[in-house]
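User: My collaborator and I are trying to settle a disagreement about how two of our proteins should look. Neither of us wants to argue from intuition anymore, so we agreed to look at predicted structures for both before our next call. Could you fold the first one, then the second, and keep them clearly separated?

Assistant: That sounds like a sensible way to settle it. I'll keep them separate. The first protein:
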Amino acid sequence: MKELVEVIAKALVDYPDEVVVTETENDKSIVVELRVAQSDMGKVIGKQGRIAKAIRSVVKAAASKSEKKVIVDIMQ
């Protein structure tokens, strides 16, 4: 999941070198944290959160085979 989020985020932003994705896993879920440059935050979130919602939908679809829930957090 980490690689998928990283590829999507780097395609969207102006500063792909500043994209940092971390993944933590526990018993029932996987938490993917996405950090981007402050100026790229709007590009990752999108108008009314549409881009962020689309990213979460793609990750959820990719994780459908695993039994764990995947949570994507966009951090500053």
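The second protein, kept apart from the first:
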Amino acid sequence: MEAAFQTNNGLTRMSQIQIPFNKPYIAGKELYYVAKAVTKGYLEGDGFYTQACCSLLEEKFEIPKVLMTPSCTASLEMAAILCELEEGDEVIMPSYTFVSTASAFVREGAKPVFVDIRPDTLNIDENLIEAAITDRTKAICVVHYAGVACEMDKIVEIARKHDLVLIEDAAQGVNSFYKGRALGSIGDLGCYSFHETKNFICGEGGALCINNPRFQERAEIIRDKGTNRQKFFRGQVDKYSWVDVGSSYVPSELCSAFLYGQLELLEEITEKRSELHHSYLELLKPHIESGWLTAPTVPEHCQSNYHMFYGLLDSNQSRDNLLDFFKARRVGAVFHYIPLHQSDMGRSLVGRQTLPVTEQAASRLIRLPFFFELTEENQQAVSQNLTEFFDFQMDAASNWSAKAA
């Protein structure tokens, strides 16, 4: 069936969206802390608030060392450098992820090896990882999709068995847990995001979680432009100099000040998102039970941070029709990733590859508006629009069946 939903001029501008997909928010003392950072007269990074964010994350999530970064991309790039990759080395990862997961390792000369995902959580299928290991494999990079943990026990076992570095791309997983352990604290290295689309935000921001002590000293150097300046600040050397490769991976103190105001309310923000998630489940229950929509799966041993609310429709055509329908109704629903193995860059690196679960999920997935200040009325409007869309689908199917008969 072709979509029959369109605005008057065929387009919906962002300014017309009545219910946006995402909306940045202020939860507490963010602006106060930004002002305090300015009055302290130290804005370049690694000041009071940057250190406060590190300490909070280390204590809350039991991570030995956290380094704040300008983005999760920066954290992944640091992780890739720490892997000491050589040209032609391989890193196993899912294809259903953001480009930074792969590009960080490609920049170091490595080749991504894409593995299919599970149909329930949409995380990398732990049962397919070992078969993808070769004598060139140096690391495994898992992605905790939608804030739900991968099956880390088995993945850790595989990584240790084959002496591979294990990296967690926990961009979506801050304050999510696997069997009581915080995501980002389980692998050798973990990477967080505080982008404005995430649960805890500062516009752009990230963190590198260092759980294996052998990476700690070099990570500090890489982050500080390849210098041993942190040793100088601690009085361990009388002057600092260029000692390794590196880049400018230190965030602005203003970003850290804003973020600290959010991290102080980490549990309150998570609780609000939990309420929004369960409200959607209740409102959409008829569509879920009827099979029109498949809701997110959270295994019992996983504690989600409720990063997003997505649904899977029965086909790519239905999903695209629904996107058009929401667009015409001025509701900011969106799809998610184009699988990396289907991208131009991905194909240039690995050739043509088929990952059936990944391809099916990517073609049928839709993300609904989901943000801290989403109201009950907003959610009811989204639900009502879904009801009208599915009614339209059923009527169209009935008409087609009648004509065929």
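Some points you might bring to the call about the second protein. Confidence is low (pLDDT under 50) at residues 1-15, 400-405. The longest strand covers residues 137-143.
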